[in-house]
Amino acid sequence: MVLTQYRIAAVTSALSATRMGTYLNATGFGAGATALDIYVWNALVSGAFFSALHVCEVVVRNAIAHALELKYGPNWPWDPGFDRSLSKWSKNELLSAKQRTQIGSTGKVIAELKFAFWCQLFTARQDQHIWNAHLHTVFPLLPLPLTVAMGRKMLYDDMEALRGFRNRIAHHEPIFAYPLAEHHARIQRLVNLRCGDTQQWLAQWEIVSTTMGARP
Fold first, then answer.
1. Closest alpha carbon to 33 in 20, 45, 24, 46
2. Which of 2, 63, 20, 29 is nearest to 177 (CA)?
């Protein structure tokens, strides 16, 4: 991208010199890559990841909701037993989501709950309540040699890593120094563990690999 010095100065001012400092000092790019080249690529790869993360989050939270329905029934957000199984933070998040919906509107509660809430359901405290009975049902492609605790922790670790990564993208922060290939693999793995067909469908149209390959 060829820009005049005047336009470079104008864009840098609009984005802020402080913000652009991160890109001016970036390493690991080609000798001809400018700060604005890196900025553009960072924005494009962030967008590519966000669409893949969208699918991943929806698929995983629906899998968890499936397990909760198997345990507590279709109105699981209002089940007292489920509420008692939660940490104080998770209880507050669930209460806040329910306050914005009507009793029985489980789908709306699912959409209101934060990614962090779903991550918290993969802590060890939920093994006896949910995962000992239902982990392999809702994630049928988990390798069978894995114990429930091992499989649940693998899911938790992947989700927590992606949660922090997702939040950074959502706040328009640089992600070029992150292990992008590893995060891409996490997305593919989580979706595949729930449904191989959905992972193959996602692979047909997501552009993460292509955009990462265009690194300046």
1. 24
2. 29
> Do 26 and 35 meet the contact criterion of CB atoms below 8 Å apart?
yes
pLDDT in tens, 156-183: 999 999 999 999 999 999 999 999 999 9
CA angle at residue 193 from 192 to 194, to 5 degrees?
A: 90
To the nearest 10°, report the CA torsion of 134, 140, 113, 130: 10
What is each CA distance from 41 to 36, 127, 171, 213, in whole angstroms? 8, 41, 16, 10
Positions of the chain with pLDDT lower than 70, given as ranges? 1
**Residue 22, CA distances (Å) to 16, 162, 173, 174, 207 in order:** 11, 22, 10, 8, 25
Helix axes 35-72, 5-15, angle to 10 degrees: 30
pTM: predicted TM-score of the whole model, two decimal places: 0.93
